[in-house]
């Protein structure tokens, strides 16, 4: 659990990730951001229908 907390902390403080944080909060609210955001982001990035583009 500590590793997930560290990953979430880093993601939430990364300016490039902020648009995805905002999207998550708009969809799911703030309540579960610390427990669910990193999992949600991983799924969102790998979703073929999302707007994330790979370089």
β-strand percent reads under 5%
| Domains, number | 1
Helix content: 55-70%
Total number of helical segments?
A: 3
> What's the story with the biggest beta sheet?
none
SS class:
mainly alpha
Question: Gap between N and C termini, in Å?
Answer: 31 Å
- Give the strand tally: 0
Give the mean pLDDT: 86
Helix-strand string: HHH
- Large-scale geometry: globular
Radius of gyration: 11 Å
Q: Extract low-pLDDT stretches.
A: none
Tell me what you see in this structure.
The chain has about 55 residues and is an all-alpha fold. It has one domain (about 1-45). It is about 65% helix and about 0% strand. It contains 3 helices and no strands. The chain has helices spanning about 1-10, 20-30, 35-45. Helix 1 (about 1-10) crosses helix 3 (about 35-45) and helix 2 packs across helix 3. The radius of gyration is 11 Å and the shape is globular. About 5% of the residues are buried. The mean pLDDT is about 85.
How would you sum up this structure in a few lines?
65% of the residues lie in helices and 0% in strands. The chain is an all-alpha fold.
Structure characteristics:
mainly alpha; 3 helices; globular; single chain; 0% strand; 55 residues
List the helices and strands and how they pair.
Elements: H1 2-12, H2 18-28, H3 33-46
């Amino acid at each position: 659990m500590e590793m997930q907390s560290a990953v979430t902390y880093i993601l939430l403080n990364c300016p490039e990730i902020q648009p995805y944080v905002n999207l998550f909060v708009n969809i799911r609210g703030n309540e579960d951001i610390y427990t669910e955001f990193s999992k949600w982001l991983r799924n969102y990035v790998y979703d073929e229908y999302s707007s994330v583009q790979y370089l």
